[in-house]
TrEMBL record:
UniProtKB keywords: ANK repeat, Repeat
Organism: Siccirubricoccus soli
ANK repeat residues: 41-73
Keyword Repeat: yes
Keyword Hydrolase: no
SMART domains tied to this protein: ANK
Name of this chain's protein: Ankyrin repeat domain-containing protein
Amino acid sequence: MDTDLASRLLVAARAGDVEKIRALLPCVGNPEEDGASDAPGGITPLMAAAAGGHEEVVEVLLACGADAAKCDHQGRRAAAHARAAGHTCLAKRLDTVVDKDQTIW
C-alpha cells in the first residue's frame, strides 16, 4: 500500500476536493481508497468525506471501490460519520450501499 497516497486521499476527502480525488484514484481496486491501516482512529477517506458532507467525493470514492461497510476504531461506518455531522441524506445513501452489499441472493 502506498501510505503517502492514502494520506493525500484523506486530506483531499476532508477538504471535499473531488478533482484531487479523481486525480489520485484513476482506477478501481487500489487499496488506498480505504486509507492507511495506521490512520488515526481508523478514519478512511470515505468517512472523512462523509463527515464533511462532500457528496461528490463520496460518490467518486465509492466508484473507486471504497468500502462503505468498513468501521473505524470505534466501530462506526461512513454513514455514522455523515449522520453525526448532520448529513442525513448522505448517511442514508451510504446505508443503502452497505445494505446492498450485504444482501445475499
